[in-house]
Structures are given as C-alpha cells and as structure tokens.
Write a structure and sequence with these properties.
By secondary structure, the protein is α/β, with parallel strands linked by helices. The protein contains 6 helices and 15 strands. It has helices at residues 14-29, 34-38, 106-112, 189-196, 226-236, 260-270; strands at 45-48, 54-58, 61-65, 91-95, 117-122, 134-139, 145-147, 150-156, 166-172, 175-179, 201-205, 210-211, 240-244, 254-255, 274-275. A 7-stranded mixed sheet has the order 7-8-9-10-11-13-15, covered by helices on one side. A 6-stranded mixed sheet has the order 1-2-3-4-5-6, covered by helices on one side. Strands 12-14 form a two-stranded antiparallel sheet. Helix 5 crosses helix 6 (260-270). The longest helix is centred in the N-terminal third of the chain and has 16 residues, at 14-29. The chain is globular, with a radius of gyration of 18 Å.
C-alpha cells in the first residue's frame, strides 16, 4: 500500500468529508487569478497591522486576524506602529489563531467589534475577557466559518509551547489567503496546500524565535525560521509571501533569528518565491 496515509481510502467521518468539501468548493469557486484574467479588479484589500495582525477589507465588510493595539503586549521591544482597528467598514469579524496576549488582544478585539460582530477562535480555547457585543464562535479544525462575505477555515498549526493554535485560510473577493499566526514547522503543510491552495498570498511568521521563559530551555526555534517560512509558502502554492511576526529587540528571554528579513529574501530568491515586505499600516500590492 502507498506509504502516504492520505493516499489510502478514506474511512469517512464528518471532518474528513467537510475538509474535502472545502477544498473542492475553494477550487471551483475561487480559481487563483481568475478575476485578473477577466479584466475585473479584485475587491479584496489587505492591510498589515502590528506584529502578526492583518485587516482584510471588502467594500461592505471587514475581517481582522490577530489584531494588536495594546502597547503593553511587548512594550518598547516591538518597534511596529500600532495601527488602530476601530474604523472597520460594514459587517466586522475577528479571527484569532490562539489566546496568547500578543495574538488575542482583548483591547483590539473590543475596538474592532465596537458595533458588534463575530469573534472566531480555535475550539477548545476560551479567549478572556470576551469583549462586550462580541458573538463567540469556537471553530473546529477544517470546518469553514461563514462570516458575511468571508469564508474562514481553521487548519492545523503547531504552537511553540504546545498550546492550542490554528492557522486560518480565508476566501473573499476572488482571493485566497493563509495566515500562520506564530506557528512553527509541522507536517500539515502538504494537506493544506492540496485541499485549500494555491494561495494568492500567505502571511507567515519568520523570526525563528528562541524562548527562555520555560525551563529547561530548548535552544530550538519555537516559530518558523525565515528558511522554513519560504519552504512552507512553496508547499502551500503561494504567489506571494508576506512576512509577519518579527521585529523584537532587546529581550533576554525572547531572541529572534539574526537578520530574519535578509535571510528570508535570500531563501526566497533560491526558490523563486515572491516576497513582499509590508510595513504596519501599509496595504498589500496584488501581483499580476
């Protein structure tokens, strides 16, 4: 029998069925680049926020992933501009990848959902405090969440501490994007790429951080390194890799890889991967 367990006959199950449906519907409904080929401008815009956050903007709807506005999350160690998120347009939703304070910022979620909306998060976690007016949406792996004009699907990720974490695949406005939170390397990239790719853009952490807060210290990166981010983007079938989750300095217990952006560009050049480094507050430029 083929050594790849995913090549074996399926045994059924609701989640396996849903995962297949998600992949099939994404491929059928959102062919990558189809809007550009038809001459119509894409409607989805994406703004990079501080640290790992992004804003996805449609004409009448907004979706945030891991927004961060609280200066206490990293203090002076993070040089990113903190981009306000209280100016969303239309129906608004927030996704978080996990409940660590630099990815679930209750201040940012409360600002974004000031007029109400959905907060979607990994099933099995409980982000607290839950902002007033937010509608909680615990989300199981591979089960698509319909959030107005967005479809968001949580997919496997691996946290540096072993805590529950997901990555998010979002389809909207004729585009598919992937957001990796602060995942480290894992073996799910191929399945995600086959079932939900290719992607117009992937937002991946690149700082390869080594942690000293938990003992004994491993000395191993708990976040994707620049080279691993390029490898993941390649497997996912990304047109463009946008680096996130980097820029911490001056901390003894949290040490980033040296020159992560430079190493990313070098690794991407070797694999002919397009990299777009976007400053917080700026918007992604879609590649033709």
């Amino acid at each position: 029998m083929n050594g790849d367990p995913e090549a074996r006959p399926p045994r059924g199950g609701r989640r396996r069925f849903l995962a297949g449906c998600v992949g099939a519907s994404a491929a059928a409904l959102l062919p990558s680049g189809s809007l550009l080929a038809s001459g119509r401008a894409p409607t989805l815009r994406i703004q990079r926020l501080a640290w790992a956050g992004i804003r996805l903007q449609l004409p009448q709807a907004t979706l945030f992933i891991d927004p961060l506005v609280n200066p206490d999350a990293w203090g002076t160690a993070l040089g990113d501009r903190l981009v306000p998120v209280d100016d969303s347009v239309g129906e608004t939703s927030v996704l978080i990848t996990h409940t660590h304070s630099d990815h679930f910022d209750a201040h940012a979620v409360a600002d974004a959902l000031g007029r109400g909306g959905v907060l979607a998060y990994p099933a099995g976690t409980q982000p607290l405090p839950m902002p007033a007016g937010a509608r909680a949406r615990p989300s199981a792996l591979w089960e698509p969440q319909l959030l107005g004009d967005f479809t968001a699907t949580p997919v496997p990720a691996s946290d540096g501490y072993g805590d529950t974490q997901v990555s998010w695949v979002v389809a909207a406005g004729g585009r598919r994007i992937f957001h990796g939170g602060d995942t480290l390397w894992h073996g799910h990239w191929w399945r995600i790429g086959r079932q939900l790719g290719p992607f117009d853009a992937v937002f991946l952490p690149i700082n390869g951080a080594r942690f000293g807060w938990r003992q004994p210290v491993s000395g191993q990166p708990g976040v994707l390194t620049p080279e691993q981010a390029v490898a993941a983007a390649t497997i996912l079938g990304a047109r463009t890799l946008v680096p996130i989750h980097y820029g911490i300095t001056g901390m003894k217990e949290y040490v980033e890889a040296d020159d992560a952006p430079g190493r990313l560009r070098e690794a991407a050049h070797e694999r002919s991967m397009d990299v777009q480094q976007v400053a917080p507050g700026d918007w992604v430029a879609w590649r033709p």
